From TrEMBL:
It comes from the Bacteria. Residues 12-66 form the HTH cro/C1-type domain. This is HTH cro/C1-type domain-containing protein. It comes from Myceligenerans crystallogenes. It holds the Pfam family HTH_3. Belongs to the short-chain fatty acyl-CoA assimilation regulator (ScfR) family. InterPro entries: Cro/C1-type_HTH, IrrE_HExxH, Lambda_DNA-bd_dom_sf, Rad_response_metalloprotease.
């Protein structure tokens, strides 16, 4: 396969930037002069196979990545620090998973993802609430009540979530809408409440096929913030339906002898949301004022709360989580011996070991002779 030298140079530069390396750092890593690497990146010098192999190892990309087309997709991020801004670590994580999902789906694994129908971006808060209700119907869950194990429902709908520990400086989540299905990466360094909110947020982006992050450099910050605000409203409404809170909050507050903290701890635990999300939701539904919302936001659940209030501690979306449908498809390929053991572990992103894989039956002499 041939590729234009300038295109290859640009891919090398992209990989270096995503790995967080300067030209000097990468050049030193692969035993090149910085000037030579600079010429490679702008296409003024060809890169040898050995040099590209070293670069591939240094930036932690498979060699074929430099020659493959970038997935044609609509991407979005949930990036609280810089809405719509770039996040190289999560970009890299989600792109890699997209490639592997597309490979598995095309390799006869039985991973049949649906074409996802896109909806209109909510124009206001009321439309965001309506989209949340529509999403619950799409996921085939009750219109009211806590939505536990959200990842299972979105997986069944063809939106495959993966959890990767990307550290506190990366975006909360990212999603890519494919021709069939979608892939979401959630930053596993977040606490469980924010992981769930981030997955709900990306579900919103997938449903409206929002491509703001593709052209974030030319979009105004205000328009990005407004779109993100409406998607966040959708995510809160999905996890905390308005009807539920209007009924539950007064009862919880009264049943806790008027103690706001206890009521917040109970609801936060039952709906598995963080206190910042609960406070924002209570205030936007006019159930509390600004001072009480600030008090809820400041609540921290401690071990004594878990024991005394008999709370259920759940760790949804743990690090290295992958959609069950994806894992099952990979294992079908392995059992059929369509992929090697090493490739299987690669498709499972290092979260599995050889000991975790099923034991394949020994082939009979007659079967072996068929191959010979």
């Amino acid at each position: 396969m041939t590729i234009d030298v300038r295109v290859l140079g640009q891919r090398i530069a992209d990989a270096r930037l995503r790995a967080g390396l300067t030209q000097a750092q990468l050049a030193a890593e692969v035993s090149l002069d910085r000037s030579a690497l600079a010429k490679i990146e702008i296409g003024d010098r060809r890169v040898t196979a050995l040099e590209l192999s070293r670069i591939s190892a240094a930036v932690d990309e498979r060699l074929e990545w430099f020659f493959q087309e970038v997935p044609q997709a609509i991407a979005s991020h949930r990036n609280l620090l810089d809405p719509g801004g770039a996040s190289p670590a999560i970009d890299r994580a989600v792109e890699r998973r997209v490639r592997e999902v597309e490979f598995v789906a095309s390799a006869g694994s039985g991973l049949d993802l649906p074409v996802l129908e896109s909806r209109e971006m909510p124009a206001n808060a009321e439309a965001a609430e309506e989209l949340a209700a529509e999403a619950r119907a799409l996921l085939d869950v009750p219109a009211d009540g806590p939505l536990h194990m959200l990842e299972r429902y979105v997986s069944k709908a063809g939106i495959l979530p993966f959890v990767v520990d990307l550290g506190p400086d990366s975006a909360d989540a990212a999603s890519i809408l494919l021709e069939r299905g979608a892939v979401v990466v959630v930053n596993g360094s977040l606490k469980v409440g924010r992981r769930r909110l981030s997955l709900a947020h990306e579900l919103g982006h997938v449903l409206v096929a929002d491509e703001y992050s593709v052209d974030w450099r030319v979009a105004s910050e205000d328009s990005v913030a407004r779109r993100e605000g409406r998607i966040d409203r959708f995510a809160r409404a999905l996890l905390l339906p308005a009807k539920d809170l209007h009924a539950r909050w007064p009862r919880e507050a009264e049943g806790s002898d008027g103690e706001l903290r206890t009521a917040a701890v109970r609801l936060g635990s039952e709906y598995r949301v963080d206190m910042a999300t609960l406070a924002r939701r209570l205030q936007e539904l006019d159930l509390v004022g600004p001072s009480d919302a600030a008090a809820v936001r400041a609540v921290r659940t401690v071990r004594a709360d878990i024991e005394e209030l008999n709370l259920v501690v759940a760790d949804e979306l743990p690090v290295d989580h992958m959609a069950r449908e994806y894992i099952a498809a990979v294992l079908r390929l392995y059992r059929s011996e369509l992929i090697s053991q090493a490739r299987t572990l690669e498709l499972l992103f290092g979260a599995w070991t050889v000991a975790d894989l099923p034991i394949l039956p020994m082939r009979s002499a007659e079967e072996i002779w068929q191959y010979v």
